[in-house]
Amino acid sequence: MNHYTYSFWRTHPNLIPDLCNWWRSTFGPLLGLGSIPGFGSDMSFQNALSNTRTDGIGALYREGTASLLNSMVNPNFPFATNDVVESFVAALVSNRAAAAQAHLFKLANEGQLQPRV
């Protein structure tokens, strides 16, 4: 099965089961947060994929969102959905951690990491 980059997901919004406010409904309750650090409280999948931030946090949202979607549609994606969520949240501690995790997600999204079996 294919892996898809953030650009693919960004340009195919009809394939995304957009949750309108995915942060508050998915990640927010896990962390006790009402908004996305640096982005506000109403970010959708499309917003995360299209954000133009050039720092590690921006890359984490783009690549992490693509990895989350890939993990949901591909059972062999290198990361399970729970792993994506946990890694994403853990990487929010700093721009450097976010950039490092975004790089790993990018490799997975591009099919450069071993599939999960």
Q: How do the helices and strands line up, and which of them pair or pack?
A:
Blueprint: H1 6-11, H2 22-31, H3 45-50, H4 56-73, H5 81-91, H6 95-109
Characterize the structure shown.
The chain is 56% helix and 0% strand. The chain is built from six helices and no strands. It is mainly alpha-helical and 117 residues long. Helix 4 runs antiparallel to helix 5, helix 4 runs parallel beside helix 6 (95-109) and helix 5 runs antiparallel to helix 6 (95-109). The longest helix is centred in the middle third of the chain and has 18 residues, at 56-73. InterPro entries: Protodermal_1 (IPR039923).
Question: Quick recap of the structure?
Answer:
This protein is mainly α and about 120 residues long.
Which descriptors apply to this entry?
single chain, 117 residues
- Compute the number of helices: 6
Largest sheet: none
What is the end-to-end distance?
12 Å
Residue runs with pLDDT of under 50 for 5 or more positions: none
Radius of gyration: 13 Å
In which range does the helix fraction lie? 55-70%
- Which structural class best describes the helix and strand composition? mainly alpha
InterPro entries: Protodermal_1 (IPR039923)
Organism: Helianthus annuus (Common sunflower)
Protein name: Protodermal factor 1
